[in-house]
């Protein structure tokens, strides 16, 4: 019976990790459009590779009319559009998609939404303005050049059920702050998750703000954010810089039963020593 239950729980965990990302953002369409990628599994961030929503009552995508996301236009890659319960809904289609962008991301301040298994390659040098990027499961973002990261740039890793990673060839951070968001649940007592990799550049872990990350233990208890992750206590999480990797590290509080078993083992050991 225990084996059957364990197998069932494992299957449920796999199903949960493979669940498609579903978003129902509330856009006001005040002077901008919402773009949904329709350029196939490989393509460039260019005109004619996008479907368009121009208002909140629209129930199907229109032709992109030769345009692409700019300024305050959100862009969805790896998502299917539908209307569910009267709300515009974007569901990750969980298809491996690779998109290559030049300097187009510079002007996408409102939000870039990457679905599960999407790879976004940006290949052109430039000082980017602050933007917001939302990642799905197993999403890869590659900035293959020198990059000046603007203050207030956001990388939202969502539910963090897969191995998503942002790689920056060279990052010039200065005194600017990059905000990391996302939710993570520990499977054990500790965790160390790579979130960003910086090949070279200035800056330190102080350039990254993890206070908007939400980390829980396996029982659903929320861990406390600690700025100094080099000396974590039980029940805390934080960020650390390790060989170019910005990592989320966490340490849960052991369950009471675990602590009691530890004391029991210690007591048994002392009793054995007394006999000698």
Give me some keywords for this one.
13% helix, 9-stranded mixed sheet, 41% strand, disordered N terminus, 10-stranded mixed sheet, disordered C terminus, 276 residues, single chain, mainly beta
Structure, described:
It is a single chain. The chain is mainly β and 276 residues long. Helix content is 13%, strand content 41%. It has 2 helices and 22 strands. The strands form 3 sheets. Strands 3, 9, 11, 12, 14, 16, 18, 20, 21 and 22 form a 10-stranded mixed sheet that branches. A 9-stranded mixed sheet has the order 5-4-2-6-10-13-15-17-19, with no helix packed on it. It has a 3-stranded antiparallel sheet with strand order 1-8-7, with no helix packed on it. The two termini are 43 Å apart.
What structural class should be given to the helix and strand makeup? Answer: mainly beta
Largest sheet: 10 strands, mixed
Mean pLDDT over the full residue set: 85
CA-atom Rg in angstroms: 22 Å
Give a brief description.
This protein is mainly β.
Blueprint (SSEs and pairs):
Layout: H1 2-17, E1 22-23, E2 34-37, E3 42-44, E4 50-53, E5 62-63, E6 75-77, E7 79-84, E8 87-92, E9 97-101, E10 112-114, E11 118-122, E12 126-127, E13 132-134, E14 140-148, E15 154-156, E16 165-172, E17 178-185, E18 190-201, E19 208-216, E20 224-225, E21 236-242, E22 245-251, H2 256-275
Parallel strand pairs: 2-6, 3-9, 6-10, 9-11, 10-13, 11-14, 12-14, 13-15, 14-16, 15-17, 16-18, 17-19, 20-21
Antiparallel strand pairs: 1-8, 2-4, 4-5, 7-8, 18-22, 21-22
